[in-house]
Each structure stands twice: as C-alpha cells, then as structure tokens.
Amino acid sequence: MELLRYDPSGALIDETGLAASDLESVAPRLTAARDEVLADAQLWQSGSEVPEKKQPLDAGFIHLPERLLKAFRADPADSEVGQIIATASRLANSVGRVVVLGIGGSYMGARALLEACCHPYYNQLDRDMRHGRPQIFFEGHNVDNNGTQGLIDLLRAGSGTTKSGTTEISDRWAIVVISKSGATLETAVAFRQLLAELRTACGDDPQALAERVVPVTGPAGRLFDLSAALGCPDRFNIPDGVGGRFSILTSVGLLPAALMGLDIVKLLEGAAAMNEHFRTAPPGENGVLDFTAVGHLMEERRGANIRVLSTWGRRLEAVGLWYDQLLAESLGKQQRGATPLTVVNTRDLHSRGQQHQEGRRDKLITNLIVDHADRPPLGVGHSQLDHDQLNALSEKTLPDILTAAIAGTNRAYRDDGRPTADLHLPRLDEYVLGQLFQMLMLATAVEGRLIDVNPYGQPGVEAYKRHMNAYLRGEE
Ligand code: PA5
After folding, report:
1. What pLDDT, in 10s, does the model give residues 241-250?
2. Which of 296, 300, 434, 436 could be a cystine partner for 271, CB 3.0 to 4.6 Å?
3. Biggest alpha carbon–alpha carbon distance for the chain
4. Ligand 1 centre from 53 Cα, in Å?
5. What does the alpha-carbon distance between residue 426 and residue 172 come to, in Å, rounded to a whole number?
6. Ligand 1, atom 5: nearest CA belongs to which residue?
C-alpha cells in the first residue's frame, strides 16, 4: 500500500534555506536519535527500571499499533479493538447523538479524525446519510458558560418522547468521557453537568444511565471510581506509558473513530506501516527522519523557529491543531522548541499570507497536500452571465484551482527565498491518516532526543492548574 511522501526540495535554497550537504551531515545524529527512540520503546516494553534522566518515558505509543493489531487478529471479538468496535456499534444502534468529553490529548485526535474522514456537514446529515452513525458533539475542552448551555439546549430539545411514551433513537444520547488522569477540571465539570442532564433524559433509570456512559480513562483515579459507582458496563483503559498527546491510537481516538463509522483497523495498519518505514529506511528516504532534519536544521542554521503547517483544505485543520499540541507540549521546554502554527489555505492566504510572504525570515512552511480528491472534481461551469469573467476557466475544477494555488504559492515563496517542504498524502483515508499521525509522533520523539529535550511529560501545564485551583478554593 502507498505511503505518504515527504519532499524537502523547496527548502533547498542557497543563503536562506538548506544545502543538500546540510541534510547529509546531520544524518548520523538522526540515526542515533532514531536508535534512541527505538531503544526507549524496548526499555518501556521490557518493564525494566527507567533511568531518572529519561523519566517520564511515555514510549508506549510506538509499538502500540502492532500490539493492538496482533491481539485483534488472534481474537477479533475479545481483543481491545474488537470491544471498541462492539461498543461503538451498541451505541450507534441505541442513540442518535454522542457527546465526547475531553481536553488536550483526550480531545484533539477525535476531532481531527472527524473533520478529516467524515462528511464536512456530518452532524447536519440525516441518520441514513451518516450510515446510521450518531451525531458527535465535543465538550469538556473549555470553560464556556455559553457553550455548555448551548449544548444542553440542543440535547434537551431533542429529548422528547413520542405519543407511545418511547424516545426516538435520534433523540437519545450518550456520553463518552475521556480523561487519562480522571482529574482534569474542565472535563470533570462538564461530565458532572451533562451526567445530571443524561440522568433526567434516562428518566432516572440507573441501568439506562450506566449503559449510556462510556468512560475512557487510566487504570485508577476519580473517573475510574465514578464510572465503577455508576456501573458502566463498558469502560476502556488508557495504558500507562502512553502520554495524552500520543494517545490517538488508543481507545482515546479509536472509540470516537469507531463511533463515526471509521475503519480503525486501517488506522492501525497505516501506523504500523509507518513504523516499519521509520525503522528501516535510511536518512534521505525516510519521511520521519527527513521531516525532522529539515525542521531542526532550519531552526538551528536559519533561526526559523516558527513551523507553519500549511494545510490545503479545511478537512486537515484539526489534524494541524492536533499537531500544534503535539509539538508545543512535547518540545516547548527548557526555553527551547519551535512554535507550531497551523493555517488552512487558501483561506489564510487572505489573512496570514502577507506575513508569510514578506515578514520575518523565521518560518519554515510545510505544505500538507492531499494528492487525490475522494469525490469527482467539481467544475467551475459555463454561465450566460459572464460578468465575473469566469467562462475562461469554465473547464477547470476545484482541484485544478487548488493545485494552481499550491504551485503558485510555493513559486512566490521560492522567488523570495522562503523555504518550503511538501508532505504529500496520497488520499485522505484511515490508512493514510494512521501513517500521518504515527509519523508526526515519531518525528516529535526523534527531535526531542536530537535536541536533548524529553518529549514526554508536560510539567509546565501544572502551574496554571495549581493557581486556578488555589483561586477557586480561596487560597490565593
Ligand atoms: O498531552 C497531554 O498529556 C495533555 O494534553 C492531556 O491529554 C490533557 O491535559 C488532558 O489530560 P487528561 O486526559 O488526564 O484529562
């Protein structure tokens, strides 16, 4: 099956970019960093003691796709993947709407999957057009008095009963609550509020309530205890050794993906294919290592510490936001780490484009391009009213216009010595997305080892939580 392709040629520019020899000279350091990342994975898997310098070591995401696939092939029904698929089907057959609660790594991946793989108006489609899958709403990723009440309005409006006293399936709803620690305030508060709503919607029936709540959490903690008290029949574990932002291919991302009707086995197969490529391809032919090398060298040699992920088409915006978190939270430590910035083009050519073309030379622009549209190209069309002068383009299609926009923008950047690189996705499906997620997680781990920053853990996030809690409890 086809792999995504990284093309750094737009970054090979004398004076403002890199030389091919730069990439060759960094190759030994990159292979050493790859070896270290793979050794980290072995160390984590062996269960041996982790040296203090390496702690925390959340390298469990690396071999996870192969591990889940192996278990699924050995026992399709009882494996974790099989149970995720079964729970998603149970919910899809019993409710029309699911609220997914979570924040950060417990939220971004599911949203990325929905936006990338599902219909652009997924929630607005009728149930048949969603192939019987539920509408998906995200909450618990903010503190938003209006937002939460707006969702409650929506859920209540649909919770009517029919004349015979039964509730229509499209009106019934459920909660998937995702929190590894089980103690994140934003998610915990939203869960408490929505659980009270759901209890009412279930007519105070404890069994119906328990069946409509699916927790995804660590092996212990407040959410674990709460879901045990509720008696939830299905609960999924986020394994130790997989950090939040590295958890998209655990039940954190897989359960919402299965709810949307996505093929989660294909997601895992794509990730496993990327692992194989990462392990075996040499620098110069290895997408993970080459992507890491260009970002690192542009920062080190050219001071380009802003990494713009230029997504072409809005379906990839949330993938970009997922990556923003991954890079920022993993490497933004010890006053180091590049700053990620996701843009959606051509939309943002009309907002940020000016700065990217003529502003400071502190950016590397990586285009994220889908090579083949999954729907037939939509033509501009001929019109008798040619006041817009578009009849000259009547034979062109939206993909033609996008291709011209990408080429034209890259050309304009090159003419001004602005380095770019292209990441080509052959298609936008589960298999390719699995590759992309795994590639970006591996690249982040490799870069951390390359610059001697532990990519795992996020000690800086604790500071705001401490102060927020102290203010809430009147201690500050
Ligand atoms: O990457 C991370 O670890 C974080 O972004 C977490 O995912 C986020 O803080 C949510 O944590 P939890 O899943 O414990 O609620």
Report:
1. 999 999 999 9
2. 434
3. 76
4. 22
5. 38
6. 104
